[in-house]
Amino acid sequence: MFTRREAMLGVAAAAMLSALPLSAAPALADQADALPHEKVALVAPPFVHPHEQAATGGPKVVEFTMTIQEKETVIDEDGTTLHAMTYEGSVPGPLMVVHEGDYVQLTLVNPKTNSLAHNIDFHAATGAMGGGELTLVNPGEQTTLRFKATRAGVFVYHCAPGGPMTPWHVVSGMSGAIMVLPRDGLKNDKGEPIRYDRIYYIGENEFYVPRDENGKFRKYASAGDAYAETAELMRGLIPSHVVFNGAKGALTGDNALAAKVGETVMIVHSQANRDTRPHLIGGHGDYVWEQGKFANPPARDLETWFIRGGSAGAAMYTFLQPGTYAYLNHNLIEAIELGAVAQFKVDGEWNDDLMKQIEAARPSVSN
Questions:
Q1: Terminal CA-to-CA distance of the chain, rounded, Å?
Q2: Which residues are known to be catalytic?
Q3: What is the pTM of this model?
Q4: What integer best gives the mean pLDDT of the chain?
Q5: Which pLDDT value is given to residue 3?
Q6: Strand order in the sheet with 285-289
């Protein structure tokens, strides 16, 4: 069992690095050196950085920089706090978008103001624990990794420093997603091109915040101070919160996702640790890549879809009616009681042909 000091110093991560081979076999020719480079600035979810849906040129090296931030964050309306571990300061980390055949070049920065070692495991990458073996950075260090995006789809990335540190870092907020689009864009189940007007990224996380003897959520001076009691609660597999984008209410009310009647919206949904069942109340998944891989044809007209823990999925829907739509995890206990709910606010004209109230509620007539 790790002590508090070992948790803070990332001993499990250091052990993982010590297992790396001392020398590598001769490498195959590096195709990326001669390609053009493009620097992309990431944006915080649910929004996504500008990108082409179909590539207009050949493969390139897409450069991203992500800074790890350990910070205290509020996760519910009662002011409950979590010592979050984040990529770029957000839970989830930003969605990266490239095209199949591009190279992803990530500079990962761990400022000296942090207290823990971190890395990144890309489910979209091939080899070296998804890059996790090559990206371990202690506080005050940075590293740069490049990998080729060989498979189209949406994929999770997360911190994986090794041993019990991995689940702790993940349920402390340290995950995100990358979308690798086909070079010629998305296709429907008939092989016809399809496009979206807006895209939103929803990352679902579960948190494990211990309670005191009075049932109140505990507050800790640091992540290390919280580790022992948090780990004990984690092993019980009963989360205190299940939320979208880092907190209850993060995507509702004034933070609801905007759309208009007639617009097609792409929803990327990830869960790095547990299964989930997204559902759009009053709408459908017109096209759903439930397993998140664009080489497979999308399913049609789904009411609820299934995202496996450790994966991401994607769904497209064209809104047909105005109003407020709830988008939730259809484990309704986790949605309503624990927080896994978002909203879409859709502007436009109502269509009576799709739905019409024939008679308003009134006292029933008895015979």
A1: 73
A2: 118, 121, 123, 158-159, 169, 174, 279, 303-304, 330
A3: 0.92
A4: 93
A5: 44
A6: 241-244, 198-207, 264-271, 311-318, 285-289, 299-302
Residue with tokens 């250091």: 14
CA nearest to 273, candidates 151, 153, 168: 168
d(CA 188, CA 306): 19
Residues 102-158 have pLDDT tens digits of 999 999 999 999 999 999 999 999 999 999 999 999 999 999 999 999 999 999 999
Residues 6+ apart with CB under 8 A from 149: 98, 99, 100, 101, 102, 103, 104, 124, 178, 180
Q: How far apart are CA 257 and CA 1, in angstroms?
A: 43
* Element spanning 69, H or E: strand 61-74
Query: Cis ω on the peptide bond leading into residue 46 (within 30° of 0)?
Result: yes
Can you tell me whether residue 61 is helix, strand or coil? strand
- Nearest of 83, 54, 53 to residue 71 by alpha carbon: 83
Residues 207, 210, 215, 219: what is their CA dihedral angle, to the nearest 10 degrees? -100
pLDDT digits (tens, 9 = 90+) for 45-87: 999 999 999 999 999 999 999 999 999 999 999 999 999 999 9
Distance from C-alpha of 119 to C-alpha of 109, rounded to nearest angstrom: 9
Q: What is the pLDDT of residue 2?
A: 45
- Token match 């105005």: residue? 322
